[in-house]
C-alpha cells in the first residue's frame, strides 16, 4: 500500500430523491430536470470498494495523513469516498479539513455535567466548515473546465455569509476561467463575513429580504443562464462535507459507537453530509456501529425540529418564516436539503434505531449563554457552536444522553466571525426581537486607564511611568 495518488476511478451519478431518476455526473445539475427534486451523488462502482475490508481502508486513510501530496491532505484524504473521477491536477487544496477535536476544558465539562469536545471547523481557511464542500465543488469545476475546455464560467451563490466567503476564496485561488459572484441579503450577514468575499475580489451583490429570498433569485439564474451554482443544491458540496464524518471517526480510532454528534441545522446540508459519510463508512466496514446524530435548531428558525417533533405518522413538511437569530448562519426557514435529511435520517434510524437521529430545539438566550460560557473556557466557538452546546445541555436535561456517551460538538465557524453578537451581549444592546437578556456578570469590556491627553507633551519614559502606575493601581499589584 502506498500513499501515492490513487489509481481507483469511480463513476459518479446524480440520483434524484424525488423520482429516483439517475443522471451522469459529468455535467452540472442542481435539481432533477424531470421532477425538480434534489440530488445525492453516488459512485456507481462503490460496491467494488468492498473488495477491501474495513481494516484495509482504515490503514490507507491513516497512512494518507502522512502524505506530502497536497491533493490527499484535505477532504481528498478520503478520495475514493469523495469524487473519485478527479485527477490530481484538478484538486484544489487550501489547507481545509482535519480540524482539531478539542476536549472541553475541565471546568466547562463539570458545568455541563458530561464529557464532550468541540470539533473546531472554524479553523478552516475561510473560518467555517463551508470550505470542505467548496474544496470538492471547485475541484469538480476545475475538472469540468479542463475536460470541457470552458474558457469562462461565473460561480454564483446566495449566502447567509459563510458560503459566499468560502466560494469567493476558492474562486479567487483557482482564478481563470472562474469568476465569483455572491448574492447576500442586505444587512443580514456580519461585517466580518461581508469583508471576506470583498477581500477575495468577488462581485458582491445585495438584495433586500432574507436568505430564502436570495436563494430563489439564484435558482432562476441557475436555471436560465450559464452559471455554476455553489449553494447546497450543488451536490458536490455535500460530498466534500462528508469529510467531517470521516475525520471524526478517524480521530476516535474509527470507533464511534459511543459518540453523540451535535450539529447546528440551517439549510441542512451539513447534517446530510455527516449522516451520509457515516453510512458510507459503515457500508465498507470502516466503522462497525453508527454514532448518534443530534441536529440543533433555534426556536426562531426550526422547520426541521417541528417536522421531527411530531409522531412519525403525523409528520408534515412545512417551511417556517424565520425570526432574527444569533445563529444567523442557520437562520433558514425553507432548507434546500430537507429531502436529503429525510432520506438519510430514515436510513440512519433503520440501521441504528430511533435514538440515532434526533433534533433538539434551543432558545436564542441559550445559544448566546452557551457561546459566551464556552469561549470564557478557552474555546473559539461561533454562535452556531454555541447552538451545538445549548443542544447538548437540552438533550441532557431531556435525559437523551446516556452514561458513557461522549459528545462531539460541531463548532461550524470561528468565534471572530460573530463577534458582533458578543458585543451586543456584553453591552446589553440586543434588539428586542432576538429575545436575549445578557447575564451582565459575564460582560467584559475594555477599560481606558488614562485620557488621550495623558500622552500629549510628555516623553516616552514619563508616559511609561504614568501608564505603569495606572495599571498598578487598577490591578492592585504588590511589588516583588
Ligand atoms: C452554513 C452554516 C450552518 C448551517 O449549515 P447547513 O448545512 O446550512 O445546515 C451552520 N453554521 C455555520 C457557521 C454555517 O456557515
Ligand atoms: Zn426527479
TrEMBL record:
It is an enzyme of class 4 (lyase). It catalyses: O-phospho-L-homoserine + H2O = L-threonine + phosphate. It holds the Pfam family PALP. Keywords: Amino-acid biosynthesis, Lyase, Pyridoxal phosphate, Threonine biosynthesis. Its EC number is 4.2.3.1. SUPFAM superfamilies: Tryptophan synthase beta subunit-like PLP-dependent enzymes (SSF53686). Belongs to the threonine synthase family. This is Threonine synthase. It comes from Candidatus Desulfovibrio intestinipullorum. The gene is thrC.
Amino acid at each position: 500500500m502506498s500513499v501515492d495518488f490513487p489509481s481507483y476511478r469511480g463513476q459518479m451519478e446524480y440520483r434524484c430523491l424525488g423520482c429516483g431518476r439517475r443522471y451522469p455526473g459529468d455535467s452540472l445539475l442542481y435539481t432533477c430536470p424531470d421532477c425538480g427534486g434534489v440530488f445525492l451523488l453516488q459512485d456507481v462502482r462503490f460496491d467494488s470498494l468492498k473488495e477491501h475490508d474495513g481494516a484495509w481502508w482504515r490503514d490507507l486513510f491513516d497512512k494518507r495523513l502522512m502524505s506530502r501530496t497536497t491533493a490527499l491532505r484535505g477532504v481528498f484524504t478520503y478520495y475514493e469516498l469523495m469524487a473519485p473521477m478527479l485527477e490530481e491536477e484538478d484538486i484544489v487544496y487550501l489547507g481545509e479539513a482535519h480540524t482539531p477535536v478539542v476536549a472541553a476544558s475541565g471546568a466547562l465539562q463539570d458545568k455541563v455535567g458530561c464529557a464532550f469536545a468541540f470539533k473546531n471547523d472554524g479553523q478552516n481557511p475561510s473560518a467555517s466548515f463551508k470550505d470542505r464542500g467548496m474544496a470538492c465543488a471547485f475541484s469538480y469545476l476545475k475538472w469540468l473546465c479542463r475536460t470541457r475546455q470552458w474558457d469562462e464560467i461565473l460561480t454564483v451563490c446566495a449566502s447567509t455569509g459563510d458560503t459566499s466567503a468560502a466560494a469567493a476564496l476558492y474562486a479567487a485561488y483557482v482564478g481563470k476561467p472562474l469568476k465569483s459572484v455572491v448574492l447576500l441579503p442586505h444587512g443580514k450577514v456580519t461585517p466580518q463575513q461581508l469583508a471576506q468575499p470583498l477581500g477575495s475580489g468577488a462581485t458582491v451583490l445585495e438584495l433586500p429580504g432574507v436568505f430564502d429570498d436570495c436563494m430563489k433569485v439564484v435558482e432562476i439564474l441557475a436555471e436560465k443562464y450559464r452559471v455554476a451554482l455553489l449553494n447546497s443544491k450543488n451536490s458536490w458540496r455535500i460530498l466534500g462535507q462528508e469529510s467531517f464524518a470521516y475525520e471524526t471517526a478517524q480521530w476516535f480510532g474509527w470507533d464511534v459507537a459511543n459518540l453523540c454528534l451535535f450539529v447546528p441545522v440551517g439549510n441542512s446540508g451539513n447534517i446530510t453530509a455527516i449522516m451520509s459519510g457515516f453510512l458510507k463508512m459503515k457500508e465498507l466496514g470502516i466503522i462497525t456501529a453508527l454514532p448518534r446524530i443530534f441536529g440543533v435548531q433555534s426556536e426562531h428558525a426550526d422547520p426541521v425540529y417541528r417536522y421531527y417533533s411530531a409522531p412519525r405518522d403525523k409528520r408534515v413538511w412545512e417551511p417556517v418564516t424565520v425570526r432574527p437569530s444569533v445563529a444567523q448562519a442557520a437562520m433558514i426557514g425553507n432548507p434546500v436539503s430537507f429531502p436529503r435529511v429525510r432520506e438519510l435520517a430514515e436510513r440512519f434510524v433503520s440501521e441504528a434505531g430511533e435514538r440515532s437521529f434526533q433534533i433538539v430545539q434551543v432558545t436564542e438566550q441559550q445559544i448566546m449563554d452557551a457561546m459566551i460560557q464556552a469561549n470564557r473556557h478557552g474555546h473559539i466557538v461561533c454562535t452556531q457552536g454555541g447552538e451545538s452546546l445549548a443542544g447538548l445541555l437540552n438533550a441532557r436535561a431531556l435525559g437523551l444522553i446516556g452514561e458513557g456517551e461522549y459528545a462531539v460538538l460541531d463548532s461550524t465557524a470561528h468565534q471572530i466571525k460573530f463577534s458582533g453578537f458578543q458585543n451586543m451581549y456584553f453591552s446589553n444592546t440586543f434588539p428586542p426581537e432576538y429575545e436575549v437578556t445578557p447575564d451582565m456578570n459575564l460582560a467584559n469590556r475594555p477599560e481606558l486607564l488614562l485620557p488621550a491627553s495623558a500622552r500629549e507633551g510628555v516623553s516616552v519614559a514619563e508616559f511609561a511611568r504614568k501608564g505603569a502606575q495606572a495599571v498598578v493601581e487598577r490591578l492592585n499589584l504588590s511589588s516583588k
